[in-house]
Specification:
By secondary structure, this protein is an all-alpha fold. It has a domain at 24-55. The protein is built from 6 helices and no strands.
């Protein structure tokens, strides 16, 4: 296991360097691949947060001995999850949501659609007015 973890980072760096010459940022296949990798990463994070970690924390003898402490712990977990989802929905987390102009620009290159180009210009104007 130690060997696996110590090899994955250099392997990822070497793979990134090798693929950097052929990677096209806004091509449809690249956008699909990025979406799939983001979805799998998010799925693993959700799995760890909901299945692996809480049982080990909530099954300790200190927490099992006090119903009040259990209720407080569950409320804290729910408030934390609610706060994170609220920040994501409000768009406060910059890495989670791309600007509308970036999404529209990607669609323009993927489809070559004149209607999408017009939406790109409108979204850029809106974003510049909001700033």
């Amino acid at each position: 296991m130690v060997f696996f973890f110590s090899v994955t980072t250099p392997f990822g760096i070497a793979l990134g360097i090798a693929l950097s010459s052929v990677y096209k940022e806004n091509s449809p296949s690249s956008l699909i691949m990025v979406g799939l990798l983001n979805a799998s990463s998010a799925g693993l994070l959700i799995y760890m947060a909901r299945v692996d970690i809480p049982p080990s924390d909530f099954m300790g003898p200190k927490l099992q001995g006090s119903i009040k402490l259990q209720i407080k712990a569950y409320i804290a977990v729910l408030l934390g999850a609610g706060g994170i989802s609220r920040r994501i929905n409000d768009g406060e987390m910059a890495d989670v949501r791309a600007p509308a102009s970036a999404r529209a620009a990607a669609l323009t290159e993927a489809r070559g659609d004149a209607r999408v180009r017009a939406q790109t210009e409108e979204s850029r104007e809106r974003e510049s007015r909001e700033r």
